[in-house]
Amino acid sequence: MKQDLVLRGQGGSYLRSGQVAELAGVNIQTLRYYERRGLIAEPARSPGGHRAYPPETVTLLTVIKAAQRLGFTLEEVAELLDTGRRRHPTPDLRARAQAKIAEVDAKIADLTTIRHALTRVVTAGCDSLTHCTCPDCPLPFADLAGGRTPEETADL
Predict the structure, then answer these.
(1) Are residues 43 and 113 in the same domain?
(2) Of 123, 119, 145, 150, nearest to 136 (Cα)?
(3) What H or E segment, with its residue span, contains residue 69?
(4) Are 51 and 106 found together in one domain?
(5) At 7, is the pLDDT very low, low, confident or very high (cuts 50, 70, 90)?
(6) pTM for this one?
(7) Residue span of the structural domain in which 37 resides
């Protein structure tokens, strides 16, 4: 970090919006959005009116982005940050992480099903969603569009 770009105030060193955004790997619009959502505190202002963020803001933004990569929504991140700000032990993060693991497992199961279906389409040589000419087409889309259920299609 270039020292000549750091704002100095009564409480120590502060960073401008662009510096915080660059160091945290986000854009300035994201930074402002997180302010509006209350994920990060509204910064002090320099004598010239520039936003003056404490250096810890970069760490907080990095934590927020890491939590998002783990699958937490911004609302969930806000709740977890709020719980952490109260500074008392809570099983909340662990419980939410376990719930997130269950969500991930469900998504993996769904993706596995989708992959299996697509593999069957490729193997069968399907050539159309509505008028496939391959024998034993695994795609019942035309039948479903005609109002028949997969069970009715299987009985044909």
Answers:
(1) no
(2) 123
(3) helix 56-69
(4) no
(5) low
(6) 0.66
(7) 1-90
